Fold this sequence. Notes:
By secondary structure, the chain is α/β, with parallel strands linked by helices. The protein has two domains: 6-92, Udp-n-acetylmuramoylalanyl-d-glutamate--2,6- Diaminopimelate Ligase, Chain: A, domain 1, CATH 3.40.1390; 101-303, UDP N-Acetylglucosamine Acyltransferase, domain 1, CATH 2.160.10. Helix content is 13%, strand content 28%. The chain is built from four helices and 39 strands. The strands form six sheets. It has an eleven-stranded parallel β-sheet, with no helix packed on it. The chain is flat and about 85 Å long. It starts with 5 loop residues before the first strand and ends with a helix.
Amino acid sequence: MTKRSYRLGDIASELGAELRGNPETEIEGLATLQAAVPGQVAFLANPSYARYLADTRASAVIVSPSVADQCPTNVLLLDNPYFGYARLSHWFDPAPVPQPGIHASAVVDPSAQVAKSASIGPQAVVEADAIIGENVVVGAGCVIGARCNIGELSVLRPRVTLAHDIVMGKRCHVLSGAVIGSDGFGFANEKGAWHRIAQLGRVVLGDDVEVGANTTIDRGALDDTVIGDGVKLDNLIQIAHNVSIGDHSAMAAMVGIAGSTRIGSHCVFGGASGVAGHLTIADQVHLTGMTLVTGDIREPGVYSSGTSADTNRQWRKNAVRFRQLDAMARRLKELEKKIEG
């Protein structure tokens, strides 16, 4: 792996940060405040880690102006240190850079259009009439279904599957094992037997969408399943058919969204939260972890459900009381009537 080194002054210029210190300092990597050694940049974004700042051995630290005076080394001043770290992380990413071209073991239908700058990995399959844009990376073992259209600079890690007619915008990033465009869970019941409904819609992803490992996004039954620009989906998420997710929403691992639900923009869903089908969720709704939504949410804000873990003994007592709530409410109303009377 080639060792990378950058002048601290060049890093500050690229990040738009104010540098307090020596611009000639050579930087060769990133690390946490605790683990950093000379030649590395650290960052402080979470106040709970401020206790490590005074003793850090990093050659520079990305910090906000409020704590800059506490830093014992070179300082890169940014209002959002975490964003600065995010940008700088790509400078030191050790992931191999795929080369343009189609691997000899890949299977590409003659009718597919593959840009010369694209990279098609070993044993990948590109089916009929698919369009692979400029600088797209299709990893080993991926399957690109018929008539898919993948926008420029998108990356599909190994073993991603796109079913037919999937539309993917620019700069999307799909991690291994993700399946986009599988059939939605659609069945009609006739006299106790279930009969499959053909899923006729597509999945349409906007620009800058990220899809985590082993996440599944079902195609629409009639209308399309739509994922807006900048949406970030973690691992092991299930998005059912005909769901719409607004721009720049983010969902943590194991979220489940049932069919035909409309989710607004700039929403954040905590891990293992779930939303029932045919609902509408407003913009800027934040669900804390393991929240279950069974009705529309019309106003922005933070929503929660469920209870935190407790000892089994205490939980069993609370469960009994929960079943008694209706009777207790009725008794309370009767007592209120008597008092008022």
